[in-house]
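pls ignore typos typing on phone
heme C + seq
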Amino acid sequence: MSRRTFTFIGAALGSVLVLTMATTTVAGAQQTPAGSASRHVRKPVDWVALNPEFAGATFVSDPATCLGCHEDSVRTYDHTVHAAALKYAPGSAGGDCESCHGPRSEHVAEPTDALSHERMTAAAQSAICLQCHDGGARFGWKAGAHHAAEVSCQSCHVVMEKRSDRALLAQASSPQLCYRCHGETRAEMLKTSHHPVREGRMECVSCHNVHGSTEALLVKSTITETCVSCHTNKRGPFLWEHAPVREDCTTCHTPHGSNQRFLLATREPFLCLTCHSYGGHINLPRYNRTSNSYGNGCTNCHITTHGSNHPSGAKQTR
Ligand code: HEC
Ligand code: HEC
Ligand code: HEC
Ligand code: HEC
Ligand code: HEC
Ligand code: HEC
Ligand code: HEC
Ligand code: HEC
Ligand code: HEC
Ligand code: HEC
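k done
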């Protein structure tokens, strides 16, 4: 069969679907939460720029054509959120399959793997998804570390098959997904003091926006803002502030794991002694000797190291 025939069937089927979809689109649009992906391509990509092999091809605009040869792929795809959301509708180039696979008239006539995602750069692969998903959490994607490191959307998401209960993740557990590439963080999380990720009470994405662009891809604009979004009692302001706490929690803590108690970066008293000498108690023998058991734990006496609201808490002793 010729290419022309396929295109014709596609166009004819398309116009039937246009009529049936016109009403459902309006109803669906009202239910779509603000900030979520548009049902349709907002910013169409230049397919030829992504892969020159697309030159001359047109949209078939008919998933039924694809189904004829790709029954296996469609069977798994049918259980995904895209299968439900991306029906062919007026004004959408390509409707379902071709929104992500580009104009396929040439492929239908003569199927090869020339148009494959695998043959595109990571940036090109992501551009396909960003047609509909450039808003919300992914606003800064192109300035972020994953994009810069040539990690694409499909490194973390599998869209042809539902493998996870949420967000089409490539793996059912999101930390396992991260550990595939971040083995060092896994090792940190195994230390005695750690954020309860391995206990399942938190995830990497509790602190990180992997689509973002801030330093270390955090959910808030700074480290301290990220920490105090959960540890609100450390937010302050306090009557008596401790300068390093205001500045950056990771001056004293590691975020992932430590073999010191309370995720401390260094053992006391060395932690405090990186900035302080024995300070005011230099001449008070009962405080300043390292042989004194209290001396090892400055916070045995300086109990409000994060800041104090006590009228006489200037020295963090209450
Ligand atoms: C939301 C984007 C998207 C949509 C919609 C989509 N695909 Fe895919 N498809 C991909 C990506 C990305 C890959 C390559 C990586 C992978 O397998 O996850 C792929 C891979 C494939 C493959 C290679 C083998 C396989 O199953 O992995 C086939 C065949 C395929 N898609 C056909 C289709 C057909 C037919 C439709 C429509 C029913 C469709 N796709 C809809 C993104 C999409
Ligand atoms: C006449 C049969 C046939 C039709 C119709 C067909 N394909 Fe294919 N498709 C194939 C074959 C065969 C391959 C494997 C080519 C290879 O690996 O060399 C393939 C591979 C693919 C792949 C993986 C490699 C690539 O090019 O990305 C995708 C995705 C794909 N087809 C999507 C589609 C879509 C979307 C449609 C509908 C517009 C479609 N196909 C229609 C036969 C077909
Ligand atoms: C033609 C537009 C379009 C394209 C292209 C597209 N998506 Fe989507 N995507 C949607 C719509 C519509 C939804 C439904 C939910 C919504 O409105 O956010 C969705 C939902 C999702 C979800 C959320 C799933 C869930 O369970 O909450 C993920 C993850 C996603 N898409 C990833 C991708 C990836 C990765 C690509 C590229 C391979 C891609 N999308 C390409 C339109 C698109
Ligand atoms: C490094 C891994 C990774 C990469 C790369 C990645 N994602 Fe995600 N994505 C995730 C994780 C993990 C979640 C779940 C986040 C959550 O539930 O808080 C998610 C959630 C989503 C969602 C659903 C929730 C939302 O924010 O609307 C969409 C849509 C999405 N990603 C699209 C994309 C697109 C498009 C790209 C490429 C531009 C991409 N992702 C790249 C890991 C990734
Ligand atoms: C496919 C591999 C891959 C996966 C999966 C992956 N990442 Fe990454 N990630 C990278 C690469 C490559 C970099 C850039 C080089 C580096 O800093 O290691 C990076 C960088 C980062 C950074 C550091 C940014 C900076 O400024 O230094 C964070 C944070 C991060 N990823 C978190 C995550 C989280 C959380 C997940 C799981 C949701 C995840 N990554 C999944 C490959 C991956
Ligand atoms: C409690 C919040 C939190 C959790 C949970 C968390 N991180 Fe981080 N992560 C951070 C902070 C804060 C930084 C920045 C550290 C710095 O710059 O000193 C960071 C940095 C990183 C970096 C950059 C390199 C490095 O180690 O400094 C990677 C990669 C990373 N995190 C991956 C992960 C992965 C993977 C997980 C899940 C296993 C995870 N993170 C869980 C807060 C967190
Ligand atoms: C998403 C919420 C969340 C964020 C953000 C967060 N934490 Fe935590 N943090 C927790 C939870 C939950 C625990 C465990 C508390 C428990 O076991 O009762 C914890 C425990 C701790 C502990 C005690 C660890 C121990 O061994 O007992 C320290 C110290 C800590 N966090 C520091 C930080 C720092 C520093 C940051 C910023 C880099 C941060 N947290 C960001 C939720 C968070
Ligand atoms: C000057 C060093 C230092 C800085 C900076 C610091 N901490 Fe701590 N933190 C400690 C020490 C020492 C302990 C353990 C003993 C204690 O609580 O006095 C601790 C314990 C904790 C604990 C567990 C015990 C508790 O009080 O709940 C949390 C949570 C915590 N810090 C969060 C934070 C957050 C959030 C920040 C940033 C706003 C921060 N820390 C900045 C030194 C510091
Ligand atoms: C990164 C450097 C740094 C670290 C680490 C640090 N501090 Fe401080 N600390 C400061 C600075 C700066 C001030 C404010 C000094 C001033 O106002 O003269 C301060 C003030 C104090 C004060 C009040 C001093 C005064 O003169 O009013 C006490 C007490 C104190 N720190 C105890 C500790 C303890 C205990 C630890 C360990 C848990 C610690 N500090 C860790 C930098 C640090
Ligand atoms: C046995 C209790 C105790 C221990 C242990 C202790 N301190 Fe103090 N520290 C005090 C008291 C009480 C003051 C207030 C003295 C004053 O008001 O004159 C003080 C004052 C300070 C000051 C403020 C000095 C000034 O000029 O006003 C600093 C800094 C300080 N301590 C740091 C440390 C560090 C660092 C350690 C651990 C190496 C430590 N302290 C261990 C009780 C202790």
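Residues 3-127 form one domain. Confidence is low (pLDDT under 50) at residues 1-35. more later
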